[in-house]
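Check my protein:
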Amino acid sequence: MQIGSTVVSHKNSNHRQLIQLKGSLSWCYQQCAQLIATTALPYFWLGDCPNKITSTLYTQILGLETSLLIINAYHHFDANQFAASEGTLRGGGTLLLICPNEVDHKDRFYTYIEKQLKQCSFLTLKQSDEKQSHQLAPISLTQASSHQPLNLEQQKLAVAAIVKTVTGHRRRPLVLTADRGRGKSAALGIATKQLVASGINNILVCAPSKAASATFFKHAGQSAQVSFIAPDLLLSTKPACALLIIDEAATLPIAMLEAITLHYPRLVFATTLQGYEGSGHGFALRFQKRLKEIAPQSRTLHLSQPIRWDKEDPLEHFTLRHLCLTESRNAKPSYNPQQKVLLHVISATQLVADPILLNELFSLLVIAHYQTKPSDLEKLLNDNHLSILVLKQNNQILSIALINHEGAIDAQLAEQIYQGERRLKGHLVAQSLTFHCANKQAATHKYARIQRIATHPEIQKQGLGKIFLTKITAWATENQFDHLCASFGATAQLLAFWQNKGFQTLRIGSRKDKSSGTHSFIVNLPLSEQGKSLHQLLVQQFQMQLPMQITRHLQFIDAMLILSLLKERPNKYYQHPVLTSYCSGNLPYAFAEVALIEVILTSDLSLLAKNQQKLTIQKILQNRSWADICRNNEYSGKKQAQQTLRTSIQELLTSTQ
């Protein structure tokens, strides 16, 4: 690379570099346009661009390669765009970052990014004189003089391990982990192509979306023997296959991964640990531990060698380190139950001034939640309606919570939301309770919505969640919020966590999340007197609608999640003559159905065995067919399932007398 009379060379010809262009926007455009015109390098331009230049969306170039990447960050630094697109830049390539001369100090995130860029060894080219805006600086870029051969040793090992999953012993699932750019998806595709060529039929690949598996199919090729299946469809139909590949497995709930493991004898779980898609660290910490319990012969393989650039790449280091996508370098915290823990409120200004603290906090979010993305770092620093709360002991951060401030909407705007005429950015719970629950007053209340709450995995299951929520509740009450609430993709275990802290369900989303296969729940804890009145009204409304919802859009939701929901209903003794007749075997199921629904809705189902709980919920409340129940619960046939149901109802009636 040559700039003026100064030659700038990469320390490693297969490393990638970044150059900041700082000046007027027209000057920056001229520099880039001249480079494009005078070099034969392939390029991608992201963001606003001058005439005669084609701009591309970063989502359209994933999986592609280029030697020159131009990102227009003059008005806004898009963290997701930057983190995703820099992976398209091959070894020896250059990223031109168009920046303003001075970043607006109100944009705390961009201020932070500028500070981090200055600390790196990247080159900055500035416009020397505003009046000479048309005088171009003589820049020339050339590709690396020699293309180093790809280091594919680890990828070859991965391909062999994937093939062995099919050709070797059953019940030995493979867990393939990698950082971004290590050829994980390519290895999955190459191995699949080899298996099909050897005569293996019916291979399924499951990923958050078909688009997310594009690299896999690029290397696997198009074959009738290889099919994509969405996560929710996989679990509901459980189709037979010779091999099931779960790509980006960290995006699926642990309970779903367990169910898949128990059902399929030949499995490959693959996930990215560090990258723009989100984090797989939680998957590595939680699921792999559980996998060893249910599949002791499972195998693991980690890909660490980059494919298209060399190790210690400065651009990759900047992305992972300064967009906080790596684990904190601090020692893992320890917790002493005998010592006090303290709640601290941390400001975004503090975090900008203390990048080490920022990295520690964001790293905790990354390892605790798979959907944490680079854009969340921007929200953390720039959202003025967000409070950052941490739980500390001996100056160690044990837990973190992000609290959104919602509601307090004036009556006129609340009326428009109620009518479906307006939709405000943010205010997720306040708007949902106003529109979906048809309550005009809901939007006028103040909500503290817990957007994220995380305890370091090394010190979980020691009661810190309960302690933290108690302190958050006190903080929210002190700050005069009417409600403390949360919205999340529900599993039975997660719902139980909130219920144990006194939260109740107010709403369930009608559609499943496509990637996780879960329904979104809104749970709430009222704090003020007016909050308690509204909460009670919405609880009654929800409980009245729940039985009908269970037979409709919740018909195939996990029965154990329904069981958790029923715990929020009061129990009462219920008896009816038709139940006695049904249990004795005289009365057919159809004639006792109304009484059976009532007894299930009002009884304590924990008195039954787990398989009985599941059966009574699936048949009586969810109205699932006998064939579906037999298929998913391993009954020999309808007769056995019917007899088990009669026995279950008899036990329930006897235990409540």
